[in-house]
Design brief:
The protein contains seven helices and eleven strands. The protein has 239 residues and is α/β, with parallel strands linked by helices.
Length: 239
């Protein structure tokens, strides 16, 4: 909730910190969609507590946010219905503090629909979307390869796929055999983007790449700084 909805002061009160790394769920949408323009339907796959879904509603008439966590989806629904929530965060050891978060201004929350679902086994009647956003998801599912192969069936011809990932491949999420790149082929390293590009260009054209830093607060004096690679793909016509 802090990562998605906290103010800059709530997330990072130190003036010397990397403030350009805040509001990642907002920047995944706001930094990329102006080039795409208004659309009919958008899907936020792995939406967590829903900030990117709400931001997508600035461009899309309907947004479907899906996450495997029931708690995350319930939190998104509370924000959708009440516009606010009280959040507790760790300050130091057992010491905590509370603060309030709000749904951002200028959106219509009723454009969003939130539901629990498995990104690898989505319900069959979802339909097609003009935009699919998957932020920090591909390295957190059991089979990234299945996920990537399924995306073409969710997106309209000439529609857009927005992928973001720091490529933090860990065996507790997916076996090494399922990793996208991140290994050697003989003596040559195969980077995640290399294999991602080879896989997606069967059905998509690469439009843009951009590094997107993000910051996750663990407690008042400990933060995790990461850099996701953002890639935008356009579904090829005629498939």
């Amino acid at each position: 909730m802090l990562f998605h909805y906290g103010s800059a002061e709530d997330q990072l009160p130190y003036s010397f910190g990397p403030h350009n790394s805040l509001f990642f769920p907002v920047r995944c949408v706001a930094d990329f969609l102006p080039d795409i323009g208004p659309v009919e339907r958008a899907l936020d796959l792995g939406c967590a507590v829903g900030r990117s879904s709400f931001e997508l509603s600035r461009w899309a008439q309907q947004v479907v946010g899906i996450d495997s966590s029931t708690a995350f989806i319930e939190a998104a629904k509370v924000l959708q219905s009440t516009g606010r929530a009280i959040v507790r965060r760790v300050e130091e050891g057992e010491i905590t503090s509370t603060f309030e978060v709000y749904v951002p201004n200028g959106i219509d929350p009723q454009r969003c629909v939130f539901e629990v679902g498995d990104a690898l086994n989505l319900r069959k009647d979802l339909g097609l979307f003009d935009i699919v956003l998957a932020a920090n998801l591909i390295d957190r599912v059991a089979s990234p390869r299945i996920l990537l192969s399924s995306l073409k069936d969710l997106i309209k011809p000439k529609g857009f796929l927005l992928l973001f990932s720091p490529y933090t491949w860990l065996p507790e999420f997916s076996s090494k055999e399922e990793w996208i790149g991140a290994r050697y082929k003989g003596d040559d390293p195969v980077r995640s983007f290399d294999e991602l590009h080879a896989t997606l260009t069967r059905n998509f054209d690469l439009v843009r790449t951009q590094d997107i830093p993000f910051l996750i607060r663990e407690h008042a004096r400990k933060y995790q700084w990461s850099v996701a690679q953002g890639t935008v793909w356009q579904r090829q016509q005629g498939y």
